[in-house]
Amino acid sequence: MSRRVRMILLVVGLLGAVTVLAVGVSGLPAFGGHHHPYRDLAVAASLRHATANVVSAVNFDQRALDTFGEETILVASVAGVAALLRPVRRERRRRRPDVPVMDSTRLLTAVFFPVTLLIGIDVMAHGAITPGGGFQGGVVLATGIHLLYVGGRYRLLERMRPLPLFEITEAAGLVIFIAIGAAGLAVAGHVFTNILPQGQLGRLISSGTVVLLSGAVGMAVVSSVVILLAGFLDQALALEEVPDTDQDSDGAEEAAR
Amino acid sequence: MTAVLGYYPYAVAGAIVLLGLVGIAISRDLVHAVVCLSVCQSGTYVFLLAVGFQYGGVAPIFGSTVHRGTPVVDPVVQALSLTDIVVSAAVTSMLLALVIQIAKRRGTVDPDELRSLKG
Question: Which CATH architecture does the domain made up of B2-114 adopt?
Fold first, then answer.
């Protein structure tokens, strides 16, 4: 298909898409109105289970089965990436020396590494009462670990994230999630029923299984992001094509930038 | 005028999706195409959040300042956007891994040069 034909098809398709979108949107209630029936139901259900953060209540209580699917998609994509990023025949692994970085970068990394880890744990633990939850906290935590790479400490990063351990915690996060759902089935007759006492609205220990499910998701997300980034960093830094061995130093410098 | 303003955020969301589509169609680099797909998906976040917005509504997190009767924005669409973001991250990582494999095997990431099928 030539570029010209593709452009004509694109314009026709865009016109069609605009028409369909316009027809669809014209049936929607206007922006910013007061009529939100799902909001009213979700807020009432969330307050019944003493969950201050309604978004967490929707994710880990009312729609917990959907979140299970979502978590599974993430874990499956990690498996897919791991399979796709295996070293091919012409590549071999090399030991990378730590590269020099600016002192200011090292300082900022040293300051923000512990701070980011703390924020990640905080966001994850308080998911039921403040903005946050397992997904957000997990991503912050995994990002915090990778600050070591920004600070030029790739070898330290490799020691800080033992991949076999993270592969286990990733699977464990998923298994714990399923186990809590199955416990709901066993005790109350419905999968992912909030079976624990829910306590008082706004307390750290409140909202029943929401905190536990959020923690399980956080565990899986931290591990997934670490394994994903490890795969991509490996491609950029640790693997090299065999014929290029004599230009090793050049390649290493280029990859470090 | 108010009728136009009432649908303006939906138009923005639609425009982001369509811009992403245009980017994919005219792309000469697979990494660029993957980023354009992310742009497309960002349009859906804008759309979801626009659907749930209410003038004067606050974040749906109850506590000392937000009480049972306080108007809040729709938490259901916010939860859906979170799902959307996670799925988008999963899709993007898979596609980028595929692009790396294509670059290794074919030596190019220009879709126009990847015409013939090779085993």
Answer: Orthogonal Bundle (1.10)
